[in-house]
């Protein structure tokens, strides 16, 4: 008797990504560069977040041809993004056999009230969160992996740091709480009581949590690991830098050896300009991707 | 107390550390070659084998790991770790450590949507063992000296060869310590090769 699509199988796949770097790619050539650099998975998409931000318009699931091309090019897992609440995009990606779906705020949401019921799928999902309430609701819907959101496509680490610190501080608070305080915390955080009990018992989130949204340099990636991320997503940071291959390799190595500062110094030397990046104050409220999801 | 390392470049390190500790041994998180000397055995965890290999190369760990194996120190590879141990990998020109006389096929049960859980009958373990297969490899063929400990659906998924133990699945994900215990028994009972220290005492 064998069983597919169980929580263990879906969450376990994310456990195997730990300590790794998942890279955004838009074609087979970039996917091969990512794999050769030591990425643990690639995220196939049509435009990286910084281009979505620049070009505007509605951002949707990538053309299946691109996703297929990436799947055929590499042997590491391939992830792909579906719009929040877009049942059909998610089912299409599942039918294509992608290894993980990112129900992502980087794309334009299809539903401004409801997320996907991810428990219904065999394919596992990763979702963004900024705090433990969002984390709890996404896991409740069936997400098997989380990523703190940061602000995608900015090359600015400040929001990624804010969100990871927020989630981790809330986890520590819950672990320190008395059993009798959990119900009120559940009400205040918008998290289920059962979820908080599990976090308290485990002393951590029940699924793997990567950092995302603004990582542009090896030191940025190492910082997120230092702050307790299980791994990192790098979107625009690699292929919008001057030397993608070297950036990719350096970010992989810095993530694995995040407390070897002499090594990070060596890796960062003469890398050339990272992506230019954006100051948060220049991004209007309507353009903040992190506000999307509920 | 036995000291068992877990290669900690990438993958499910924490789970193996917990399994080692649950069996009463000391676990060491290994990131560089200097740490290998103090170990009685080493676990190569699940993760992404291609990513791990890149990190092994950049940390200059390939030769030290091969020497560790050549000194007949026990190694236990799970999933990606099995791929690292294998002498040959289907569809690839080169192997990684290449110390275990087996040929493996990567991702041989399909993509993630085909990943599954199943109970296995393992030689030497009485009750069925809960196993999680994630984009798992399997052992396509094994040399004469390799002892096949478990097959699933006609495919070899667990084998032992001298001091090396390898499996397709992830015992670290189910919290069942019996396979880790089997490895620790191998470590404890291995016949020590004569070392320089032995000779100097004679």
Describe the structure.
Chain A: One of its GO terms (biological process) is pyridoxal phosphate biosynthetic process. The termini of chain A are far apart. Chain A has 13 helices and nine strands. The longest helix of chain A has 19 residues, at about 160-175. Chain A is α/β, with parallel strands linked by helices. Chain A has a single domain, classed as Aldolase class I (TIM Barrel), CATH 3.20.20.70. Chain A has helices spanning about 5-15, 30-35, 50-55, 65-75, 85-95, 130-140, 160-175, 180-190, 195-200, 220-225, 235-240, 245-255, 260-270, and strands at about 1-5, 20-25, 40-45, 80-85, 100-105, 125-130, 145-150, 210, 230-235. Chain B has about 200 residues and is of the alpha/beta class. In chain B, about 25% of the residues lie in helices and about 30% in strands. Chain B has helices at about 15-20, 50-60, 60-70, 80-85, 180-190, 195-200; strands at about 5, 25-30, 40-45, 75-80, 85-90, 100-105, 115-120, 130-135, 140, 145-150, 155-160, 165. A seven-stranded mixed sheet of chain B has the order 2-1-3-4-12-11-10. In chain B, strand 1 (about 5), helix 1 and strand 2 form a beta-alpha-beta unit. The longest helix of chain B is centred in the last third of the chain and has 12 residues, at about 180-190. The radius of gyration of chain B is 16 Å and the shape is globular. Residues about 195-200 of chain B have low confidence and may be disordered. The interface between A and B is large, with 39 and 38 residues.
